[in-house]
């Protein structure tokens, strides 16, 4: 579904949602819907690009993070946090990268319970070769925004992420 249709669907369904759930804060509920639509739309937008270069978005992200990391290494937990995925999904991604020879996994010398993921020369080559193929789609992805709007969006998204940290509530079990 094209973005214009997705936005029309949100606009069309919001009044009935507000009527059915009158205590639901509608601006915030709509914002959550918009962020989810944006995330899924970005995945659909970039998926053909990643498929054409034989990678997934998460695999590319992990390779880029490892290339940028000190000594080209990170722990699985660090990668899970930075990619923003579950531990189970990161385990699957890392198994794929290991079997493809793009990263290696070793035990940390000071703590045998902790694994270290290192990018291999083959992984560096694959990530570097993918960058030129990603440039045009990346630049086009936000081409509908002015440079100032892009800066503002960046700042607002960071602020929203931090707001989720401070806005959380702890639910108490019924006693």
What can you see in these coordinates?
The protein has helices spanning 3-20, 26-52, 57-68, 76-83, 87-99, 121-141, 147-166, and strands at residues 73-74, 103-107, 115-119. With 175 residues, it is mainly α. Among the domains are: 25-54; 55-132, Winged helix-like DNA-binding domain superfamily/Winged helix DNA-binding domain (Arc Repressor Mutant, subunit A, Orthogonal Bundle), CATH 1.10.10.10. Helix 2 (26-52) crosses helix 6 and helix 3 packs across helix 6. The protein is globular.
Q: CATH superfamily membership of the domain at 55-132, which one? A: Winged helix-like DNA-binding domain superfamily/Winged helix DNA-binding domain
Summarize the helix and strand pattern as letters.
HHHEHHEEHH
Specify the CATH architecture of the domain at 55-132. Answer: Orthogonal Bundle
Strand order across the largest sheet: 1-3-2
Spatial gap, N to C terminus: 46 Å
Outline type: globular
Q: Regions with pLDDT < 50 over 5+ consecutive residues?
A: none
CATH class of the domain at 55-132 reads Mainly Alpha
Helical element count? Answer: 7
Please tell me how large the radius of gyration is.
20 Å
> What's the pLDDT, averaged over the residues?
90
Judged by helices, strands and strand pairing, the structural class is mainly alpha
> What is the percent of helical residues?
55-70%
Main pleated sheet: 3 strands, antiparallel
Number of strands: 3
- What percent strand? 5-15%
Write down the CATH topology of the domain at 55-132: Arc Repressor Mutant, subunit A
């Amino acid at each position: 579904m094209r973005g214009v249709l997705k936005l029309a669907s949100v606009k069309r369904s919001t009044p009935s949602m507000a009527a059915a759930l009158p205590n639901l804060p509608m601006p915030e509920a709509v914002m959550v819907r918009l962020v989810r639509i944006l995330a899924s739309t970005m995945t659909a937008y970039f998926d053909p690009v990643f498929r054409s270069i034989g990678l997934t978005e998460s695999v590319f992200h992990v390779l880029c993070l490892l290339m940028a990391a000190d000594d080209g290494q990170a722990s699985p937990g660090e990668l899970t946090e930075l990619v923003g995925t579950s531990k189970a999904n990161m385990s699957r991604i890392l198994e794929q990268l290991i079997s493809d020879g793009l990263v290696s996994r070793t035990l940390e010398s000071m703590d045998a319970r902790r694994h270290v993921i290192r990018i291999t020369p083959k992984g560096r080559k694959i990530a570097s070769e993918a960058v030129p193929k990603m440039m045009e789609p990346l630049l086009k992805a936000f081409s509908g925004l002015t440079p100032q709007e892009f800066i503002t969006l960046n700042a607002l998204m960071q602020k929203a992420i931090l707001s989720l940290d401070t806005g959380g509530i702890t639910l108490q079990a019924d006693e």
